[in-house]
Amino acid sequence: MKRVFKYLKPHALVVILCFVLLGIQASCDLALPNLMSEIVNVGIQQEGIEQKAPDAISEKGMQLISYFMTDEEKAEFQGDYTLVSPGGPETTAKLVESYPALSSEAVYIRKGENSAAESVDMIYGKSAQALMNFLKEAAGEQASSGSEEDVKLDMSVIYQIIPVLEQMPQDSLTGTVGEEEASLLGAQIGVTFTRLFYQELGSDISAIQRNFILYVGAQMLAVALAAGIAAVLIGLFASRISAKVARAMRHDIFSKVESFSSSEFDEFSTASLITRTTNDVQQVQMLVILGIRMIAYPPVMAIGSIVFAVEKSPSLSWIIVLAIVVMFALLIAMLIIVMPKFKSLQKLTDRLNLVSRDSLSGMLVIRAFGNERHEEERFGVANDDLSKTNLFTQRAMALLMPFMSLVMNLSGVLIIWFGGQAIAESTLQIGDMMAFIQYAMHIIVSFLMIAMIFVFLPRAAVSAKRIDEVLSTELKIKDKDNPTELGKISGVVEYKNVGFRYANAEEHVLENISFTAKPGETTAFIGSTGSGKSTLINLLPRFYDVTEGSISIDGKDIRDVPQAELREKIGYVPQKGLLFSGTIESNVKYGKEDATPVEVEKAIEVAQAKEFVFAEGSDGLDTSVSQGGTSVSGGQRQRLSIARALVKEAPIYIFDDSFSALDFKTDATLRKALTHYTNNATVLIVAQRVSTIMGAEQIIVLDEGKIAGKGTHEELLVSCPAYKEIAESQLQKEGD
Fold first, then answer.
1. Which phi-psi region, left, alpha or beta, contains residue 87 (left: φ > 0; alpha: ψ -120 to 50)?
2. Residue 3: CB partners within 8 Å, gap ≥ 6?
3. CA–CA gap between residue 20 and residue 355 (Å, rounded)
4. Which of 170, 429, 557, 581 counts the most CB atoms within 10 A of its CB?
5. What is the predicted pLDDT for the residue at 557?
6. What's the mean pLDDT in 6-22?
């Protein structure tokens, strides 16, 4: 996973910006339930009146409420107000508009700069509660039944008790309500009397309620809009970052694979490399998207929601604890059961790709031997293994959502049940219960997001490890820190006591091979199957490195030369002619991108491909070639591969059994044309046919990785029994 962070490093500032936006989004999402609670509690239940203590109160109102305060409380409470007289210097048009009674009578106006507002509200709440208790006792059962409408209709009824209050001892009025009771009920009762005081002053309660709801509603819209914009930006940035990370990762994997020698290709199958470049990178890309969008967001939301929920109602917090315990149990069960299956998915995908590639590339052979049923069964096993594992993981994940929904719904039911009881006891407000439900849902959804991360993380971690295996592979063949430039060369190739052994092999494939190939001459290699001919040739372009001895060009060890420059000097035709999808021209120019049309046509002519390339009815050089060259015959594929090497006009040519698919006539014509085209180049040919190499200036016979003979055709017929046996088996004896 460290390599993933390496790819994120260039995008560090954008990632930090995304986390800042996540913080903004989380803050907004956490603020919305509180604002909704404000609208319900204050905007609807309290008719828009926020404070317990009124902003304005009549002289009679101040006198009434003060009877239920101690001397210290009365001094503090009245000190928070200023008596404003009609037409006085402190009377403003705005005050008169808000409190019309001020135009004819003095009104106490609350000071806005008082730092002890909470203390004043507490005093007022206690006094309001004491007043309410006194009214209930005075009015008997009728008043205790809460006939609030009667009180609203005639406030003067309440003021009629002032003479009675004047006769009563102060202790009997101020000691009836404790701090705890005032904190629970004082807010609601205080707001009730505040509304009555405002109505007495002629204030428009409907306007107060409307303005409050509109104000808080506008806040909710702004917060929701901010959260939406943050979410969109996070999604945009996360998608762009993940796409760039995936692009860079695919580029690095492909570049690394391009630098692999044949030794590294022996360690990774082609199907596995394709899976790592596509499916594995996609898994990491998904992790980057989810990581940026979810790794920080769910924990913040879960912790914030727990804090706010407990603040709203500590008595209901046990429901959240219960829900968290159940969800943790679900997540742990999911990790134990499903995670091992997720880890095996990539290997199963490798296996399916391998079987598919084998079957599709070898379809003709499969049909020729009538093994379609066997291949179907082989594919079916790989497909079933992958499908069963996928189904198991998907079914397990499909069960997670209903379980989470069940926990969410049961939590909501419990909150409503016990929250309703708290509301009936006046220890919880309706808006707070609604906010508590939303916070509980936030907590559960956050855990669901965390579960998704836990699901993707192991599979992405496996993919990241598989990608890292490719990128961290130590190249067995690499350039030296200070390589030697080849420069312009004549093309003298010398093998000195060359030995080679494959990795982990016990025996050498080649031993003590020494020869010199000169410009203007052809050096040919022949021998039985498995004698090491192709391996010997592949050492020159450094597809493998020698394990013993050395190979030099013009006296310079090829291990001291940059690989790119070394291969630039070699025109190579592989044993299996491979063409790329495109046209004939693009395939021939693959050897030399800036080749002129004349050079292309000349190479095609020497390779004896002119006849079918420019045949009547064909598109000539624009003729389409399918992937792998399957749209042309084996012989045509070989001739185009030869033309691709010849167009380089290199000082050294390697033909690795490149004439095997040609008929004898075409073979002879091609060799004759090659003699003139490569008269100044060093030519190395691996062949199975003696007729192909009879004219070579030097023939090297290999037998079990060792040189069994060296010389011309005539010399070897006399000095090398192995060569004579091969020649006699292929050529007619004189006189026959």
1. left
2. 464, 467, 468, 471
3. 47
4. 429
5. 92
6. 89
Tokens describing residue 19: 């986390």
Q: How far apart are CA 262 and CA 63, in angstroms?
A: 100
Contact 498, 513 (CB under 8 A): yes
- Which pLDDT belongs to residue 71? 85
Sequence-distant (6+) residues with CB within 8 A of 125 are: 52, 182, 183, 185, 186, 187, 189, 190
Assess contact for 201 and 100: CB atoms under 8 A: yes
Of 214, 186, 262, the residue nearest 502 (C-alpha): 262
Tokens 């008043």 map to which residue? 143
Domains assigned to the chain: 56-213 (no CATH), 296-459 (1.20.1560.10), 575-649 (3.40.50.300)
User: What is the 8-class DSSP label of residue 316?
Assistant: G
Residue 56, SS3 per DSSP: strand
What DSSP element (H or E) covers 201?
A: none
Amino acid, single-letter form, for residue 12: A
Cα dihedral 81/83/84/89 (nearest 10): -90
Q: Which of 511, 563, 552, 571 is nearest to 535 (CA)?
A: 511
601-633 pLDDT per residue, tens:
999 889 888 888 888 777 888 888 887 666 778
In terms of Cα–Cα distance, which of 418, 415, 410 is closest to 439? Answer: 415
* Amino acid letter, 325: V
One-letter amino acid identity for 562? Answer: P
Tokens of 53: 């203590």
Measured distance CA(313)–CA(27) in Å, rounded: 20
Handedness of CA 479, 484, 490, 493 (dihedral sign): negative
Average pLDDT, the chain: 83
The rounded distance, in Å, linking the Cα atoms of 667 and 607 is 10
Q: How many CA atoms lie within 13 A of 346 on its CB side?
A: 27
> What pLDDT shows up at residue 223?
94
Band of residue 95 on the pLDDT scale cut at 50, 70, 90 = confident
Contacts of 655 (CB under 8 A, 6+ apart): 573, 642, 645, 683, 684, 685, 686, 687
Is the Cβ–Cβ distance between 223 and 154 less than 8 Å? Answer: no
Taking only the tens place, the pLDDT of each residue in 152-185 is: 445 677 887 777 777 777 666 665 555 555 455 6
392-408: b (≥16 Cβ within 10 Å) or e: ebeebeeebeebbeebb
The residue with greater pLDDT, 32 or 175, is 32
